[in-house]
Amino acid sequence: MSPEIEENMEGEVIFPVSADVSFASDGFPKYKLGPDNQILEEPKEDNKGPSLKQLSDQHKRLSVRDLACKFDKNLTATAKLAEEVHELCHFLYMTLSIFFSFMHDTNP
Prior knowledge:
Blueprint: H1 3-10, E1 32-33, E2 39-41, H2 52-60, H3 64-106
Domain Stomatal closure-related actin-binding protein actin-binding: 53-85
Pfam family, one: SCAB-ABD
GO molecular function: actin binding
């Protein structure tokens, strides 16, 4: 190692991995990806955990919390749109009332 690199590394803090962390394997998974990142070939199962396909499917599913959050956001947006529609209808009603009042007053 060169002295320049040693100097830079001395000031850096490296946090150790917690002792209660366990990894399913000590290597990278072996699979091939196709178009749209679909898994084409899955490695042989070794019963150490869920298959790569199961993990991929699980990742794609929305949790109940995610669905509730989306529902709340859509409910809020719907309430805002309903309020805007209500204000627009009131504005149109007032405008038409003034218009018809003006038309009634100008016609003999």
